[in-house]
Amino acid sequence: MSFALSLPSNSNRDAATADSDKPSVGGSYKLRVPVFALINPQSGSGCGEAVQAQLHRAAERCGVQFECERLSDGNRDPVGRAIERGAKTILVIGGDGTVSKAASIAAMHDVDFGIVPTGTANLIAKSLAIPEDTSAAIDLIFGGHRVEKIDGMRQGIQLAFSHVSMGTYSRIAVKENAVAKRRFGKLVYVARALREIVANRDWRFDLDLDGVRHRRRASLVLIANVHPVGIAGMSWGDQIRPSDGRIEVCVIRAKGFLGHVSLLYNALKGRTAESDQIEYLTATTSIKVSSKRPLPVRADGEILDRATIDIDVIPAVLPVIVPQQVN
Known about the structure:
By secondary structure, the protein is α+β, with helices and mostly antiparallel strands. The protein has 2 domains: about 10-150 and about 315-320, 3-Layer(aba) Sandwich (Rossmann fold); about 160-315, Sandwich (Tumour Suppressor Smad4). The protein has 10 helices and 16 strands. The radius of gyration is 19 Å and the shape is globular. The two termini are about 35 Å apart.
């Protein structure tokens, strides 16, 4: 997908989306119509036809104007074209990579955004308490919900919404096999992670956060807008929230088997703040990260064609459909 990124101001967006902020009967927010859904048929178990049928039934039941397309190599910028046709709600059925690419386009326009998570990790959905069960996620969108405006991390023309990383985490993803991901799911990440842990590597990183420079030696720099790790309910830190106007920069020093076991144990227990394997830094406007040795950069599950991180923090850029009540 290629496009020019020109983000609307928050004040303009607030005025334009005023109707979506009005509760309908029963206290839920109105689903803005027409609705367009984009399905990644390769995501998860690849049950695109079944999900498409569920979406059509839900739209018919609610009397909602609805259109659906499947993501394919020849289908260029389906979200942008749907918005040009007048779509006011964009739904994406897929994993974090598909969600992030579509959300980057949706964020440029006066539309709401819904997620039916079918990927391997589903970090964005988890952070917003969106159900991972397909039927429950569809019921949320077409039933009672509210809209939460989440922050974005802009790199060039692309926005990321969950994690951007350099180090072991990004190296794990470089040689992932798409077929293996669909067949074995999270076991692919675990196997690759074990190889990286045994390698016992770390690197020197130069960081510039809101104009303040830092130098750290670490095995991973993880820039986090959401808290889930994506495995077994692990969390990078409960203080990491997608709509608080700030981004957490996690500098992870864990090396070798014992260091990573300690880190993952605290992540599983929700006690990463107590771990001596991780340091938290914060940014609200800009984040730059580089290393002397070029490392891959991973953003929202996808490897980017770059060897440095250069982010502008964009607060409250994307209105996402979420449950009415979140614990």
